[in-house]
Each structure stands twice: as C-alpha cells, then as structure tokens.
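Q: Given only this backbone (79 positions), what sequence would you predict?
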C-alpha cells in the first residue's frame, strides 16, 4: 500500500484529523526509534569502555565459572 493512500484511509477512518497529523505521528515514531537506538549505542559503548578499564570474561570463561560454582555447591551440600 502506498503511503498517500494509507494516510488518506487513516484520516477517513477517523484515526487522525488530517494528513499532517498522520505525518506528525510517523515522525514521532521515528524520533522515538532514533532515541532508543542512540540510547542502546551509548550503553554498548559504556559497557565496552568499562570492560577495557576493568577487564572482562569471554563466554567460555563465564560458563566455566558457572560450572565450577555448581560443582562446589553440589559437593558442599549435605547428603
């Protein structure tokens, strides 16, 4: 469906006052998406920077730590 027809049908259905209202709603969604994307990128960059400062574990290292922790709990649990 082309955007002109979609906008016209949305207005005709009473979802929006006019086509400008349709455009405004679309722009607000784009703005929210871009803000969310920017927030996610900032979070990833902050996490990477923290990992560079304090170090990090690989997925395999985390899995090994989890297995070791489980094994310690199992051997320490009363029978």
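A: Predicted residues:
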């Amino acid at each position: 469906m082309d955007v002109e027809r979609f906008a016209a049908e949305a207005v005709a259905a009473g979802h929006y006052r006019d086509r400008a209202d349709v455009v405004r709603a679309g722009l607000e969604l784009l703005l929210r998406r871009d803000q969310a994307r920017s927030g996610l990128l900032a979070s990833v960059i902050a996490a990477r920077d923290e990992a560079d400062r304090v170090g990090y574990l690989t997925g395999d290292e985390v899995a090994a730590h989890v297995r070791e922790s489980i094994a310690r709990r199992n051997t320490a649990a009363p029978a």
